[in-house]
Amino acid sequence: MKHAARAELLRVTLFVCVCSADLDTKGKVLRVLKSIVKFILLLGLLFVFVCSLDILSSAFQLVGGKVAGDIFQDNAVLSNPVAGLVIGVLVTVLVQSSSTSSSIVVSMVSSGLLEVKSAVPIIMGANIGTSVTNTIVAVMQAGDRNEFRRAFAGATVHDFFNWLSVLVLLPLEVASGFLYRLTKLVIDSFNIQTGADAPDLLKVITEPLTKNIIELDTSVIRDIATGDPAARNKSLIKIWCKTQKVTNLVNITVPGFANCTPDVLCWEEDGQIWTQENQTETINLNKCTHMFVYADLPDLAVGLILLALSLLALCTCLILIVKLLNSMLKGQVAVVIKKVLNTDFPFPFAWVTGYLAMLVGAGMTFIVQSSSVFTSAITPLVGIGVISLERAYPLTLGSNIGTTTTALLAALASPGETLANSLQISLCHFFFNISGILLWYPIPFTRIPIRLAKALGNRTAKYRWFAALYLILCFLLFPLSVLGLSIAGWQVLVGVGVPVLVFAIFVIIVNIMQKRCPRFLPSFLRSWDFLPKPLHSFKPWDKVVTAGMTFCRTRCCCCCKEKEKDEEKDEIKTKDKSLEMYDNPALTIEDEAKVTATHL
Fold first, then answer.
1. Which locations, inside or outside the cell, does it occupy (predicted)?
2. N or C, which terminus of the chain has less Cβ within 10 Å?
3. What is the domain range of residue 122?
């Protein structure tokens, strides 16, 4: 395999040399200049892409940050592990940052409002919620069916890994408390001292732009969650970036001499008892420089403005990045790049490749300080077929580990009184992901998230509106429904949840048996045709959705109609072919013979 890759690289080099010989000096210079310009454009677009993700997170915090703080206030609900899980999902989706939701949990544990054992399900939920960002990024590649199929599968493999891990590990944690006990044992075994904070390398690059757009005071969300009534009237938009706290001894009145400050002068004057007390005052020195510092707008309005702008920038950058990558990665060069990224080590070390990819994912996530940024960056590469889904899976798992190591370093920088609690919560997050990897990666048969992601990718490529439905169901309606049932009481949750869960398991088992061993099923269960068509097929729903979108196709420009005709032709052509097109035809070896010099 290794020698084949070298031979391929040599052949491409010779091919480039031959093609170069056909060009004159001017043509060579123009080609080199064009490649340099494309590369610089790609770096610039990646920079704006990452900055727009940061602004998107700030926008979600402005829109839903205070709501997230209110959700965390109900300690009775948080003691229910299922409710804690969905609260973790909802809060992380609202603030678009697992780091923010984790820091809120650490603050609540440190202040005694929440026990570490109750915090573990919330951390699991935060792990699920953070995967929504790259799923949103994948939806923006819906223009091309095959690109969308690959991109959505590459994004949702993260979702399936997190949900499946929770399905196994949450009941195990409730029954045995193994994550709590394991992390408690680690904390007690080592004399851990306060250390340095995690290096924030990405902020150094993006801050010059993002801090001129918006700066937030996330401590307001933590103060609301910990029950500070004054925080409710504060704005999340930071106005003063440089402040100084000054402590002065001031005179105050008290009801009686018994209320005087100990070891401080106390006297009576004009019928009132006076004493002295240290009071801390915050002096505002320098205002921030972002564009909303002088805007007299509520947090919600600013959040909605930033949400629209960041989504527009994100979508534009993603489209341009995909087009640039498609123009740069064509022909035999692309074939070699794909081989290098996706080829395993020679036997008997093929199994090492996936674990090496995990290390790469963990290292890159540690560098950029965000699993959302890393997984969102590889999603377009999966979409255009440069990275295979099988390689993206271990990269994503490594990213999960990388984001927990960042949290561990941040926990080590906590003050002494909160160090143990914050470190234990970070370790729970770390061991949860390690346990998930042990469940769903080492044995190829157990890599169920890949098969589920491919099936979902096929479904969303055929019915593209299903991607939006999936996002709304998994990250909003389902968590909200479970939260509502939890608030109603555990009896209601069990009474509704158990029958629904049993029914879902029954449907899954019947579906599997229909495909593999239908002879063991009763005749009426060998297909779902006995049900009304809308209950077992998306086609009737697709007609409804399509009818709702006919305005664009009938009233808008004729290009919409032409696009619709082209799509119909493509559907007729691919009707008899497999939907599982997870390789980009432009990057396959079969097309090597068709490559011309212009492709380079």
1. Apical cell membrane
2. N
3. 1-209+297-488
